[in-house]
User: Which sequence fits this backbone?
C-alpha cells in the first residue's frame, strides 16, 4: 500500500469521526521518518479515541496491519505510526500546547479529500 493510499484512508477515518482542523504535510524528501504527517483535533478524550479506533478499523478493512499506537486510555494525545504516515490526534488544549505543526513548516500542506 502506498503512502498516498494510507493518507486517503486516514483522512476518511478522521472525517467519519468528525476530527477538527485536520492538516496533513507532505514531508517526502525532507523527513526520513515518514512521507506524511497528519494532525487533527478532537472535542473530547472520548472522541480522540473514537478517531483512533476509526483509523485502525479502516486499516484492518484494507488488510493493513503495519501500525503502532503510542498513548494510553487517559492520554490527550495519541500517535498512530502507520509506517509512511504518522497521525497525531489531540484534544484541542493539548494541540495548542504542543503546537507540532511548527515542526513541519518545511513540508507542503496537503489538500485532504473530504468523503
Assistant:
Amino acid at each position: 500500500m502506498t503512502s498516498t493510499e494510507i493518507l486517503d484512508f486516514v483522512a476518511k477515518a478522521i472525517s467519519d469521526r468528525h476530527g477538527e482542523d485536520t492538516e496533513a504535510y507532505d514531508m517526502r524528501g525532507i523527513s526520513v521518518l515518514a512521507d506524511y504527517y497528519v494532525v487533527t483535533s478532537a472535542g473530547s478524550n472520548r472522541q480522540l479515541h473514537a478517531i483512533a479506533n476509526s483509523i485502525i478499523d479502516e486499516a484492518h478493512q484494507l488488510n493493513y496491519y503495519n501500525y503502532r499506537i503510542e498513548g494510553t486510555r487517559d492520554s490527550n494525545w495519541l500517535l498512530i505510526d502507520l509506517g509512511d504516515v504518522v497521525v497525531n490526534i489531540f484534544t484541542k488544549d493539548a494541540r495548542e500546547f504542543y503546537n507540532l505543526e511548527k515542526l513541519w513548516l518545511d513540508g507542503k500542506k496537503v489538500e485532504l479529500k473530504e468523503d
About this structure: The chain has one domain: 3-99. Strands lie at 20-26, 36-42, 68-70, 77-81, 85-91, 108-110. The domain at 3-99 is CATH 3.30.460.10 (Beta Polymerase; domain 2). The CA atoms of residues 88 and 98 lie 11 Å apart.
